[in-house]
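Action item from last meeting closed. Structure (86 res):
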């Protein structure tokens, strides 16, 4: 499970392990323990998060003017193509 540094707490890690998943959470600087996480996988999470932030820059996506799912997904696809072509 990929989670941001802000959620670095022992109870989050325990809940993730209890759900039989592996937490990919880097430790905050205040922790004494050394962070052992998949840095490549964590970097991919950041890329996906930045892509969604770019997608939200399209007002029609952020406010969801289209009420029908097909119309909304069509514009999300169009916005994604526009982002990738930049």
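Sequence:
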């Amino acid at each position: 499970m990929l989670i941001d540094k802000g959620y670095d707490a022992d109870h989050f890690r325990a809940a993730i392990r209890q759900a039989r998943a592996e937490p990919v959470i880097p430790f905050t600087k205040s922790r004494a323990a050394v962070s052992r996480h998949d840095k490549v996988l964590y970097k991919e999470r950041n890329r996906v998060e930045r892509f969604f932030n770019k997608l939200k820059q399209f007002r029609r996506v952020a406010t969801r003017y289209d009420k029908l799912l097909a119309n909304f997904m069509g514009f999300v696809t169009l916005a994604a193509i526009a982002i990738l072509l930049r």
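Note appended to the action item: Residues 39-55 form the longest helix (17 residues).
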